[in-house]
Amino acid sequence: MGEVNYVIGVHASVHGVDAAAWDGLLAAQAQPSPFMRHAYLAAMEESGSATADTGWAPHCITLHAGGVLQAACMVYLKHHSYGEYVFDWAWASAYQQHGVPYYPKAVIAVPFTPVPGARLLARDAKARAVLLRAVVDWCEEVGASSLHTLFASDDDVQASDNAGLMLRHTVQFHWQNTPPGYADFDAFLASLAQDKRKKIRQERRKVAEAGVTFRHAQGSAISEADWDFFYRCYERTYLEHGNPPYLNRDFFARMARTMPENWLLFVAERNGRAVASSLIAIGAYSTGASGLNGTQTTRVAYGRYWGALEPVDCLHFEACYYQPLAWCIANGYQRFEGGAQGEHKMARALLPVKTTSTHWLAHPAFADAVARFLEREGQGIGHYLDDLGQRSPFKRPA
Question: Rounded CA gap, 195 and 86, in Å?
Answer without folding.
Answer: 33
